Amino acid sequence: MLKSSNPKVLFIEPFYGGSHKVLIDTLTACLVDYTLVTLPAKKWHWRSRCGALMLYEQIPFVNSESVLFCSSVLNLTELLGLRPDLQSLKKVVYFHENQLIYPVREIKERDIQYSYNQIITCLSADVVLFNSNFNKVSFLDNLKKIIKILPDCRPKELKSKIEAKCKVLYFPVEYPEISVNDKPSEILHIVWPHRWEFDKGPEDFFKVLFNLKDENIPFQVSILGESFTDNPPIFSTAKEYLKEEIINFGYIDSKKSYYNILSSAHVVVSTAKHEFFGVSMLEAVYCGCYPIAPNALVYPELYPLDCLYSNLEDLYSNLKRLCLNPTLAIEERRKMCLDFDKYSTAAVVSNFVKIINDLVFS
């Protein structure tokens, strides 16, 4: 990648792993000079609550840096209080997700601390970047609901103060160099490439697959994505109940093998309850899968309406239709026309460089 000489950036990332690491590594690769301070990607809740305290002694005193860049995991306001020398820098915060709409049964169950951290971080920043328009809009539109939880002394004009700083910078996707071969049309291959966590909706996904199996509708499935020591129990149940349909089960270490599986599948499904971009879905679609996703969250921003479902009955009907005629999935994917370039690493890096140049020199 061609490096450019730009204002020196101090990158601070309290959760340096996964998509957070990918973003930082992608952005730093385009810069001649930068400073990077990170914490390992573990114990997210502690990083979010105490990241400023954990980091403030590790950050070198400002030398030639002009811009401070951090993710919204960091409470930027606390850090600036602990390190007043950083206040002179232009401050940019990046939202991979926002805590204001994390799914909870009732508003009273929400731990407001995480939302509070993100709100005051925005107030301390000069520019607030979101990885999708949905992420931005959902954050701004839910500020009032969160602030209403305060018993009194609620701040006024909070939305307008933050909105003026907001921009969208899509997450950079490095597309695989892979040729999409002709897919077999005898049996539908479904792929679910998400983290094995509650907010990705595995219960809903497997409920639909169980119903398909109970009706003797043929399909194959690959359950990919990162798993953890404490996985939702439904995965063990599904592994046994769908043992005849499962052809891949678990995280794939090799990127090449992972992309080969994606390119062999007909359909990629999301049942997410909390999604602001969805790299794994976009990668699968790039590899030739037809996307089926909720008509909610970020998905209407990325995919045509025909790909979106309204409820589980709708998802079941869509999958059943394609299971009975896999050729339809192949044909419908070929008809899709998506602008993959605007999410590419090259496009995102170019936009990032422009943002920091405008911030420093305007």
From TrEMBL:
Residues 190-301 form the Glycosyl transferase family domain. One of its GO terms (molecular function) is tRNA-queuosine(34) beta-mannosyltransferase activity. Its EC number is 2.4.1.110. It catalyses: queuosine(34) in tRNA(Asp) + GDP-alpha-D-mannose = O-4''-alpha-D-mannosylqueuosine(34) in tRNA(Asp) + GDP + H(+). Keywords: Glycosyltransferase, Transferase. It comes from the Eukaryota. Residues 8-173 form the tRNA-queuosine alpha-mannosyltransferase N-terminal domain. It holds the Pfam family QTMAN_N. The keyword Transport does not apply. Belongs to the glycosyltransferase group 1 family. Glycosyltransferase 4 subfamily. This is tRNA-queuosine alpha-mannosyltransferase.
